[in-house]
Amino acid sequence: MIKKKISRIIVPLDGSKNATRGLEMAITIAKQSDAVITGIYSIYAPPHSEFRGVGSVEKAFNKQLKKIMEEAKVLTTKNDVRFKERLMRGDIGYNIVKLAHSKGKFDMIVMGSRGRSSAKEMFFGSVSNYVVHASKIPVLIVK
């Protein structure tokens, strides 16, 4: 008998179709194991941004972020799955892995194979590739 229970799942969200498919798969897993999904959005923020202080850019970004998280909340609520959200700044892949490894809080990462970045890799996006290789917890990549 399997003794390891999945109780907390990380799902990176960026508004892409692959991220939505990742969330849908996480919902399926969460329903079967009564797990909580933590949707994270990591903003790539270089140390000295040229956009610092530009209010219109920040407002548009916050509006987009709220829309992505609200859609995730609606989808999880419809399926009776608990959802938490988390916003992080810095390197996206590193933030996902760092959160996943924090105090043994998470059991699994479920993510889309490729997000919204413009860099196209042959099979995986650069973030999912990094997470697969750096994570010490199971990672499920959804295409």
Strand-helix topology:
Elements: E1 8-12, H1 17-33, E2 36-43, H2 55-78, E3 82-89, H3 92-101, E4 108-112, H4 126-134, E5 139-142
Helix pairs in contact: 3-4
Account of the 3D structure:
There is one protein chain. This protein is of the alpha/beta class. It has one domain (39-142): 3-Layer(aba) Sandwich (Rossmann fold). 42% of the residues lie in helices and 21% in strands. It is built from 4 helices and 5 strands; from the N terminus they run βαβαβαβαβ. It has helices at 17-33, 55-78, 92-101, 126-134; strands spanning 8-12, 36-43, 82-89, 108-112, 139-142. It has a 5-stranded parallel beta sheet with strand order 3-2-1-4-5, with helices on both faces. α3 packs parallel to α4. The protein is globular, with a radius of gyration of 15 Å. The two termini are 30 Å apart. 30% of the residues are buried. The model is unreliable at 117-124 (pLDDT under 50).
Feature tags:
single chain; 143 residues; alpha/beta; Rossmann fold; five-stranded parallel β-sheet; 4 helices; 5 strands; 42% helix; globular
Low-confidence stretches: 117-124
DSSP E strands, number: 5
So, the CATH homologous superfamily? HUPs
- The protein's oligomeric status is single chain
Helix tally equals 4
**Largest beta-sheet details:** 5 strands, parallel
CATH architecture name:
3-Layer(aba) Sandwich
Overall shape: it is globular
Task: Give the overall average pLDDT.
Answer: 85
CATH third-level topology: Rossmann fold
Radius of gyration: 15 Å
CATH class: Alpha Beta
Helix content: 40-55%
Whole-number total of structural domains: 1
Distance between the termini: 30 Å
- Strand order, main sheet: write it out: 3-2-1-4-5
Strand content: 15-25%
Return the structural class.
Answer: alpha/beta
What is the helix/strand order?
EHEHEHEHE
